[in-house]
Amino acid sequence: MKQGVDILAFGAHADDVEIGMAGSLAKWAEEGKKIIICDLTEAELSSNGNVESRRKEAKTAADILGAFDRVNLHLPDRGLFITDNHIRKVANVIRKYKPKVIFAPYHNDRHPDHGNCFRLVEEAFFSAGIRKYEVEDNFPPHKALSLFQYMINGFSQPHFVIDITDFIDKKVEVLLAYNSQFFVPEGGVPTPLTEGYIESVKARDKLFGKEVGVFYAEGFLSSKPLLLNKNLFGEGL
């Protein structure tokens, strides 16, 4: 892939990316942006569902979003430790797809895998741009423009938000594709995700939207200042 993609969004588990930024991804896909989703694990330790069902749900969700592709690194669930091997695997994906912008979960999340996912991506984001840094497939170095964080659990003051008013219904549709996670399946057990989780995510997006004068928005964080050109006077993104 010589030209590269626009967006590479990482998650520890399938559904992480969708919880945090499905509305934005759907919006950008409709605008023609090329999007890759990379799940680090197959969520094999999930209380409900199994690897096979999660694969099917992840594919359905990506299709609804309009993602160009979805890949999985098959790293161990609850084993996303900051090792050289894991960093190189993530850097390999970055070099392969050459994204303009990268997204990963907010580092301060109740689930340790989410924070570790960010830290792995943060390390790989830097290493992928080093010329002498070696990865499995010998892809040339690539330096993405920015690394942003999206929210999964909890609420943090965002550095910027994206208006998803026209895409909130699609976001809900995408989340509902994860039937094994947001509903208690036969033989399953209640979890935080089955106790009105989608409604709480939608409420958070509504609150972010209210802060900027739209109905729904998704919040993001940046580790460096954002350069505003025409956006300062409200012309939009």
UniProtKB/TrEMBL annotation:
InterPro entries: Bacillithiol_biosynth_BshB1, GlcNAc_PI_deacetylase-related, LmbE-like_dom_sf. Pfam families: PIG-L (PF02585). Its cofactor is Zn(2+). SUPFAM superfamilies: LmbE-like. This is Bacillithiol biosynthesis deacetylase BshB1. It comes from Lederbergia wuyishanensis. The lineage of its organism: Bacteria, Bacillati, Bacillota, Bacilli, Bacillales.
